[in-house]
UniProtKB/TrEMBL annotation:
Matches recorded under Pfam families: SpoIIM
Name by which UniProt lists this protein: Stage II sporulation protein M
Domain of life: Bacteria
Keyword flag Oxidoreductase: no
Keyword vocabulary terms for this entry: Membrane, Transmembrane, Transmembrane helix
Transmembrane domains' residue ranges: 96-116, 163-184, 196-213, 219-238, 258-276, 282-304
Keyword Disulfide bond: no
InterPro entries tied to this protein: SpoIIM-like
PANTHER family reported for this sequence: SLR1478 PROTEIN (PTHR35337)
Length: 319
């Protein structure tokens, strides 16, 4: 990229950063990261230019501001989910999109495989689960599995398992992103064949209204965990202007923040599965409200809200 175009694309952002007088540690850190990224690019392609000297001075200013405001406010725990995590969703929106596309494709593969191979569902879900579900269907209670344990025991077991799966999905990204894609493949094939199985039994819409009470949050969080793994793997594959080690450290830190940030979502999903989904005969309007409400929250928190925060940070626009 020619230097004039580089300056033109970033001039407004630099001007805002230069005039910014914020003392908020999270905003300072985010601004500092963006400036150092631009500085690294300028040093690589325009090492002796005035642009590089200007960015070096601006980076020094932010560095001093950060150390002046080293002690953080007591609401650091809250600000992580309020600002830091949404900014990461915006920064890595491509990885979230790729993870979602991978997962949808794998779900379709699972559904098609189940349609054309009667043994595929048993291969993926296991004979015991299919036999139990067939028995439940024969008894008129197809989703009786959600009533098979006490609520509290079920809650802790499901929450722990889902958090474990998300962390493994993230960590597997170190294998050049392929590891995370593999776990998306496993979960996608399972979900696709699982849903096809109920549709083939004439229980498709009923399964959606029951299972997706908790599944909307749970599955979406696994997809986002896959995105965190792509962040980790891509930082190793595509270091850009950083050294590979620096890029890996940054990708690992950001990916871990995303994976850890999913914990509250998994806890809520486990609560729904343990205490709510078991009421399989609840009114359609109630299950629909929970499902749609969960979906609206995810779209808002992962897509809409991060864009608003990003624009406000970058250009100082008001909500």
């Amino acid at each position: 990229m020619r230097e004039p175009l580089f300056v033109k694309q970033n001039a407004k952002k630099w001007e805002y950063f230069e005039q910014s007088a914020t003392n908020d540690p999270d905003e300072l850190a985010d601004n500092f990261i963006q400036i150092t990224d631009d500085l690294a690019y300028a040093k690589t392609f325009y090492p002796k230019s005035k642009t590089t000297a200007y960015l070096n001075g601006l980076a020094s200013k932010f560095h001093q501001s950060i150390y002046k405001n080293k002690s953080e406010k007591g609401n650091r725990f809250i600000s992580f989910w309020q600002f830091e995590l949404p900014i990461l969703f915006k920064t890595y929106q491509k990885q979230v999109m790729y993870s979602f596309i991978f997962f949808i494709v794998f779900c379709l593969m699972g559904a098609l495989s189940a349609k054309y191979d009667d043994n595929f569902v048993r291969l993926i879900m296991g004979d015991d689960y299919i036999n139990m579900t067939n028995a439940n269907i024969a008894k008129g209670d197809p989703f009786g599995v959600y009533k098979s344990q006490g609520e509290v025991v079920m809650f802790f077991g499901i929450a722990a398992n889902n958090i474990y799966v998300s962390l493994v999905t993230f960590a597997a990204g170190i294998i050049f992103s392929v590891g995370s894609v593999y776990f998306l493949l496993r979960n996608g094939l399972m979900l696709g064949s699982f849903q096809y199985y109920f549709f083939s039994k004439g229980l498709g819409m009923k399964s959606v209204l029951v299972i997706w009470i908790h599944g909307t949050l749970e599955i979406s969080a696994i997809v986002i965990a896959g995105a965190a793994g792509l962040v980790l793997g891509n930082s190793l594959l595509f270091p850009k202007t950083f050294t590979r080690m620096v890029s890996l450290k940054k990708g690992a830190a950001d990916g871990m923040k995303i994976a850890v940030g999913l914990v509250p979502i998994f806890i809520v999903a486990a609560f729904f599965e343990s205490f709510v989904t078991r009421h399989t005969e609840m009114p359609i309007w109630l299950s629909s409200c929970i499902l749609i409400g969960s979906l609206i929250f995810l779209v808002w928190y992962v897509v809409i809200y991060p864009n608003r925060i990003y624009k406000k940070t970058l250009y100082g626009t008001k909500n």
